[in-house]
Write a structure and sequence with these properties.
Helix 4 packs across helix 5 and helix 15 crosses helix 19. This protein is an alpha/beta fold and 627 residues long. The termini are close together. The chain folds into three domains: 245 residues, 4-Layer Sandwich (Glutamine Phosphoribosylpyrophosphate, subunit 1, domain 1); 188 residues, Rossmann fold (3-Layer(aba) Sandwich), CATH 3.40.50.10490; 144 residues, Rossmann fold, CATH 3.40.50. Strands 3-2-4-1-10-9-11-14 form an eight-stranded antiparallel sheet, with helices on one face. The protein binds 5-amino-5-deoxy-1-O-phosphono-D-mannitol. 5-amino-5-deoxy-1-O-phosphono-D-mannitol binds next to helix 9.
Amino acid sequence: MCGIVGYLGPRDPKEVIINGLKKLEYRGYDSAGVAIFDGPSVKRIRAEGKLKNLELCLMNEKFSGHLGIGHTRWATHGVPSVRNAHPHQAGGISLVHNGIIENYLEIREELLKRKADITSDTDSELVAHLISEEVEKSKDLFQSVKNVLARLRGAFSILVIWDQEPDRLLAFKDGPPLVVGLGEKETFVVSDVQAALQYTKKFIYLDDRQIVSVKGTQLDIFDAEGNAVAQKIQELNWSSEQVEKQGYSHFMLKEIYEQPMAVSAAMAPHIDSETHAIRLAKVGFGKSSHDVETLDVAEDWKNTQKVLSEIERIVIVACGTSYYSGLVGKYYFEQLARIPVEVDVASEYRYRKPVILPKTLLITISQSGETADTLAAIRMAKEMGATTLSICNVKNSTIDREAHGHLYMNSGPEIGVASTKAFTSTLTVLNCLSLALGKIKGKLSAKAEQEQTQALLKLPSQMEVALAYDKYFSDAAEELKKFKGFLYLGRGVSYPIALEGALKLKELAYYHAEGYAAGEMKHGPLALIDENMAVVVVAPSDDLLEKTVSNLEEAKARGGKIISVGSGDNHRLKSVSSRYLPMPVAHWSTNPVISVVPLQLMAFHLANSLGHDVDQPRNLAKSVTVE
Ligand code: M6R
């Protein structure tokens, strides 16, 4: 969490840093600050709250230098306040930090014994003191940073400037992402490419325990021992417009509307455009994520088939919305490829000493590709001998780089903290992957394969129909606000959609909402039902519909108000519902992708009508890079 930006070059550093921080605000938004050279000294300005508060403080500030660093914070150590805001300073050192220093208590004690003037409650400030002490003695910033790096435990990305060197930026990382953007005689060091995308498309993704030194226009990257390492430059095809709202009121709304396009982009590489047969493209098992673009599709498909033919079981590990997409994936893999699947939350999986049997494929799902627990899970599984495959949105993110095989959501940048298009794109990728596995394992007939791919190809236009519920929920929001709680129900493949619907409402509207398997109602949740409880049910016309309707009758008999997302003109479901939302009639495997759309719109409009910040809900950050 937290976003960091460093800039050295001919532009106005204040402008570059603020523009960059705006793009990183999704990572944290409880305070922000900059430290920029002004003449021979470094001027620091910080503000509590969102970035716009810092912008106000900076309005009349001018900086004559060409080097600066900035930070937008998601508090870990110390409450959100100006004194805990970054950059932190000690001696001539200014520093911004994303992550956690685990051995901060011992460092703090040691510094206090040496009478260091510690002014905040953060772990980050302590690093500034350590570097300051070192540089006082050695007068060598690189050497000082290298020595301090050796002392730190935890997960961190850090940018450092020193008031004695107005043309030198140092950065080092161990854990949270850090990327170097390369411009014409200018360098950006940022948490996420989005922060520099308007200036350059050329980036170097740093590996752990690397140190970056930028001196004027000279860029060098070293390992923790000080040996120079090769610089692998990647050219991105994301445009800077993609990270703007483009006329929408919110990023989330824009991203909801982008879903038909996003699911098309997710399936396109894996469905042969002429024969409509499934063949996974450029998975690159055994290849670096940096090289997958250059692979030959036919050759790579042969390799993928070889690898996947060996697989006898699947474990899916992820967090939050990505975890729910994994739960849908379980239905896909079991039904279409007849392979046993286990799905786990990464923070549980990594600590429960799981048994990884031979011939296991461990799939991690992560929009950002940086989620700390998911990353730890993939590392552990690799060590235990699993073949790993990542499904990420951000190419060359840490999880993507660490996996043996690589699949992409292809959703384009997702900025809203609540995940929407990454979820539906992931379901689409999982559908393609399970079809490929079914085919490789001989479980999928040619007829079924055609039926499935036809269903996928129809999906974008069916999602357009679901998007028409935007106006419906904008009108319904006032009435829906009156409920005290929301119970989301579903069965089979719709059960994870109920969980996802409840999560969207919790994180955006701050209502108590729970997702349940409809068949579990009588085992407890039925006691919650009264006229203040809305029951939102996802019940497309599939072979479980009758059972779900019986559960709804029981809820209705106890005063519950039923809002149902069904498919087609389903009289039975309509008759038990206060509100019935028909979706297009679709294939069982694509129903979840369609029925989640009205749930996203409902959460969006409820939150918006309550005056909540939909794109940046309280207490959250988009990329959870600390445990
Ligand atoms: O980047 P990831 O997909 O790994 O993120 C996982 C979760 O943090 C994320 O899905 C979170 O639950 C979203 N805020 C949900 O909308």
